[in-house]
Amino acid sequence: MTIYSPIHIVNFKSIDNLSVKRDDLIDPYISGNKWRKLKHILTAVNLKQKHHLVTFGGAYSNHLIATAAAASRNKLKATAFVRGEKVENEMLLLCKLFGMTLIFVDRERYKNKKELFSSHFGNDESAYFIDEGGASNEAVIGCAEILDELPEVYDHIFCAAGTGTTAAGLLRGINTHQLNTKLHVIPVLKGGEFIKDEIGKYEENQGNLILHTDYHFGGYAKTTPELINFIKCFTAQTGMLIDPVYTAKMFYAINDMAQNEYFKPNAKILAIHTGGLFGILGMKEKLS
């Protein structure tokens, strides 16, 4: 299947001729790394003759929208366990419009996803478990394919990380192609050092991996006035939307590192725009 994910050049503040892989343009609802993660999962679902996707996420999860849309297009049933108290928002509305059933569970019970799946769907032979964010080896395979699409070799590749699955795929692609490209991972949550171990579950060779753990802005889905201002200026000057949870923190890191002369002159740098733009809706008050 041919996808639309061009490479655009961005200039902004200290960012000079940055290449951006526009995975956010792949699909309006199954966008960015969500499309890549679900691609091979759906193949496995078909091979195993399953008909019911069961997954997990927060109330503002892009993964839930992507799974709901993918299920609808493939004539599959979809259910999501949503972390926390029952709420209504634009993203969950989209999930329901795509036909997804939502089950709200408290945060303590949510921690044991396998138990939730077993207790609700253990007797449903058509049910297929999809971890939060689509984390799986199938997802890593899908994200590794990004390297197959690149027209040239880059000195540096950047991505934001929540679970590390996308980063694991990129690292696998770099290793498979035997490149010397450095993979820079920006954990978007506090204590992001664990991402290295998560990546290691899928890819042992981490020689080209560099984690930058100081760009979380207070933690997952947390922001500061400085980050909000960066988002507004970046989008207005580049015409490229970025979300406050993932991609904004990555682009901020690249700009900060460039400003501090981290890169050699004329270094070739690629940023992976992983989509997730519905995350803007969760912070519309801050961004307005």
UniProtKB/TrEMBL annotation:
<feature type="modified residue" description="N6-(pyridoxal phosphate)lysine">
    <location>
        <position position="34"/>
    </location>
</feature>
<feature type="active site" description="Nucleophile">
    <location>
        <position position="61"/>
    </location>
</feature>
<keyword id="KW-0663">Pyridoxal phosphate</keyword>
<dbReference type="Pfam" id="PF00291">
    <property type="entry name" value="PALP"/>
</dbReference>
<feature type="domain" description="Tryptophan synthase beta chain-like PALP">
    <location>
        <begin position="17"/>
        <end position="275"/>
    </location>
</feature>
<dbReference type="InterPro" id="IPR027278">
    <property type="entry name" value="ACCD_DCysDesulf"/>
</dbReference>
<dbReference type="GO" id="GO:0019148">
    <property type="term" value="F:D-cysteine desulfhydrase activity"/>
</dbReference>
<dbReference type="InterPro" id="IPR001926">
    <property type="entry name" value="TrpB-like_PALP"/>
</dbReference>
<comment type="similarity">
    <text>Belongs to the ACC deaminase/D-cysteine desulfhydrase family.</text>
</comment>
<dbReference type="InterPro" id="IPR036052">
    <property type="entry name" value="TrpB-like_PALP_sf"/>
</dbReference>
<protein>
    <submittedName>
        <fullName>Pyridoxal-phosphate dependent enzyme</fullName>
    </submittedName>
</protein>
